[in-house]
Amino acid sequence: MRSTCRPLLLCALWLGFAGCYKDDVDVSARTDNPFDADYTGPTVFALDSIFVEQVVGPPSYSRQVVQFKVNDGLFLAPASYQVEVHDLLEGTRTLVGQVPPGSHLLRFHRLEFTPGQEVCLELRLTNNNAFGRPETICGTWP
Asked: Are strands 135-140 and 82-87 parallel, antiparallel or unpaired?
């Protein structure tokens, strides 16, 4: 009986002490994820260019394109996402995706534009119905 109790006692002690060495992670203290609203790291978005393109129809029309990049090097792991664009001039909100997919280059189209007028967009990463910290980019099409 003595030889049976010893292994059981050692297993019980090992299991009892195994829980003592776990590190508790304070999730509220983590602010390094650009998909979180409380992200405190470097800027996620950078303005790439602003230009006008002709869309061949019917009907044919012109639209302003604001092209920007996402700094995917800030992501903690590869992730799929969209960007919510709040056009501060028009007040509209739109979700846009990568062009082409996986490139981290995005385009926002505006139908109403005036040459020389500054365009400011508030951008937020989004995935799984969560939104990251808003950032503003501005630029002017000559």
From this structure: unpaired
The dihedral built from the CA positions of residue 93, 39, 82 and 66, taken in this order, carries a sign that is positive
Q: Distance between CA atoms of 106 and 98, rounded to whole angstroms? A: 5
Predicted TM-score (pTM) of this structure: 0.78
Q: What is the CATH number of the domain that holds 57?
A: 2.60.40
Residue 86 CB partners (closer than 8 Å, separation 6+):
92, 93, 121, 122, 123, 124, 134
Residue 46: give the domain boundaries: 29-140
Percent of the chain residues topping a pLDDT of 70: 80
Q: Answer whether 54's CB lies under 8 Å from 62's CB.
A: yes
Best CA proximity match to 133, nearest among 124, 142, 121: 124
| Predicted confidence (pLDDT) per residue in 52-106, tens digit | 999 998 999 999 999 999 999 999 999 889 999 999 999 999 999 988 888 999 9
**Residue 65 half-sphere exposure, CB side, CA atoms within 13 Å?**
15
Q: Is residue 60 part of a domain?
A: yes
